[in-house]
Amino acid sequence: MRVASKIVKGRADETCTLSYEDRFLRRRVLATDAGEKFLVDLPHTTSLDDGDCFALGDGTLVEVKAAQEALLEITAPDLLPLVWHIGNRHCPAQIEQARVLVQPDHVIRDLMERLGAQVREIHAPFAPEGGAYGHGRTHGHSH
């Protein structure tokens, strides 16, 4: 089986579409979009972004593609207070100029609607902001 032991940028030979959760890994067997299996064996748990590439031992580059997934799209005339509430609950959030995307959560949806936001279900790639100190995902308060 082909093995990927590092992540690089480059011109890819193949693609591998992964959800937000699946883009956080250290060691796992994955398959390209064409169905070819390969082992990912990274030195550390890594949060992958759309466009990162697995560098396989045979020189092949497999580009990571962010999968379309179920999300909540939150919009409002003033997003800033809503973003504060989302962050205060430690929810991963993709913050854009006119909207915020979060994973489906009935408590967050209810809160946002009570605060006057418009919330709708969509399917889109999910690329939330990095952790508290700009180092990707965090593992909670105990780290």
Number of strands: 10
Low-confidence stretches: 139-143
Radius of gyration: 17 Å
CATH H level, superfamily name of the largest domain: Urease metallochaperone UreE, N-terminal domain
In percent terms, what proportion of residues is strand?
35-45%
Number of helices: 2
Shape: elongated
The CATH topology of the largest domain corresponds to HSP40/DNAj peptide-binding domain
CATH architecture level-2 label of the largest domain: Sandwich
| CATH class categorisation of the largest domain | Mainly Beta
Spell out the helices and strands N to C.
Answer: EEEEEEEHEEHE
**What topology, given as strand order, has the largest sheet?**
2-6-5-1-4-3
Number of domains: 2
Walk me through this protein's architecture.
The structure is a single chain. The chain is mainly β and 143 residues long. It has two domains: 65 residues, HSP40/DNAj peptide-binding domain; 56 residues, Alpha-Beta Plaits (2-Layer Sandwich). 13% of the residues lie in helices and 43% in strands. It is built from two helices and ten strands; from the N terminus they run βββββββαββαβ. It has a six-stranded mixed sheet with strand order 2-6-5-1-4-3, with no helix packed on it. The longest helix is centred in the middle third of the chain and has 9 residues. The chain is elongated and about 55 Å long. The C terminus is likely disordered.
Give the structure's gist in a few sentences.
By secondary structure, the chain is mainly beta. It folds into two domains: 2-66, Urease metallochaperone UreE, N-terminal domain (HSP40/DNAj peptide-binding domain, Sandwich), CATH 2.60.260; 69-124, UreE, C-terminal domain (Alpha-Beta Plaits, 2-Layer Sandwich), CATH 3.30.70.790. The protein has helices at residues 80-88, 106-114; strands at 2-8, 14-18, 24-31, 37-47, 53-56, 61-66, 69-75, 93-95, 100-102, 118-124.
